[in-house]
Design brief:
5 strands, about 80 residues, single chain, mainly beta, 3-stranded antiparallel sheet
Amino acid sequence: MMLLHVKIINRNSPLYDANNKINGFHVNCKAREDLNWTQSTFTNKESALIHGLKSSSSTYYHFCVSFINRMDISAYS
């Protein structure tokens, strides 16, 4: 089992925010060889700890993040 700290730096804002603050982020991940994304975590900070990753040093992961506010959820970046 492996733990990874992800810094959320590249993100797309919700299409309509109505001047509402960002309440949090969904972070999804998948190993490069996997077909499906896994919803890894929800965080209200600009970083996240991802649990349950494969401990192989040859496993590469892809991550995507979406914004959440009171009005909308953004597309994943």
